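2024-03-11 09:14:02 INFO worker-7 job=invfold-0412 stage=load source=structure_tokens
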């Protein structure tokens, strides 16, 4: 599983709701699992991809799509259609038309839609007015970042899931020296993990200081 899937969560485990650090997102996860038309949005590294992949693992005939619109030549009559980073397809006339056509086709089959994006629908620069109209009807669910007070637990959660040995002392050493955004924490853990494997060294404070260039 690639690094991108891990943002906000993990890469060692298969994406599932059991391996998602819930934080304050119980309501969001419930709506994603229950809603008929859900637009899931949130800032980077909150775990939107993990949530969609987890949902795909729960629903037997789910169709997960990313980086391109649905292929209209495929059977889209699924019980659940998941489109990750749908906002990256917007602004392209051909992709938007394909999305609109897919929506119209699956509407007759009562297919559930769950899509992810960085922003809410009204903040996405749609070219195709009819598509914007359809997307505006989706239930808007925001995936919230992990609170500042829980960032140490988040880092420990990621490390444990990847079987990375890291002590509380090292975690707090890092938190005192790097930006506490989820993106920064994830990137730092990835960097330290790769370096420790290459050099076969444990994540001690001296090693972390050396790798990160801390004074």
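2024-03-11 09:14:09 INFO worker-7 stage=emit residues=215
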């Amino acid at each position: 599983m690639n690094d991108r899937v891990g943002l906000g969560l993990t890469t060692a485990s298969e994406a599932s709701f059991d391996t998602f650090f819930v934080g304050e997102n119980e309501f969001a996860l419930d709506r994603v699992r229950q809603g008929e038309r859900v637009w899931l949005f949130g800032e980077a590294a909150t775990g939107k991809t993990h949530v969609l992949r987890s949902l795909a693992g729960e629903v037997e005939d789910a169709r997960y799509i990313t980086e391109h619109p649905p292929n209209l030549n495929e059977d889209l009559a699924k019980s659940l259609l998941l489109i990750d980073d749908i906002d990256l397809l917007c602004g392209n006339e051909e992709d938007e038309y394909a999305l609109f056509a897919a929506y119209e086709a699956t509407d007759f089959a009562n297919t559930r839609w769950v899509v992810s994006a960085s922003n809410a629908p009204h903040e996405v620069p749609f070219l195709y007015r009819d598509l914007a109209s359809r997307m505006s009807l989706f239930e808007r669910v925001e995936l919230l970042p992990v609170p500042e007070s829980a960032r140490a637990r988040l880092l420990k959660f990621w490390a444990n899931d990847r079987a990375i040995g890291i002590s509380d002392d090292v975690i707090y050493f890092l938190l005192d020296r790097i930006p506490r955004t989820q993106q920064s924490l994830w990137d730092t853990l990835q960097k330290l993990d790769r370096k420790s494997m290459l050099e076969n060294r444990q994540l001690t404070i001296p090693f972390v200081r050396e790798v990160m260039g801390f004074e």
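2024-03-11 09:14:09 INFO worker-7 stage=report msg="Residues 182-199 form the longest helix (18 residues)."
2024-03-11 09:14:10 INFO worker-7 job finished
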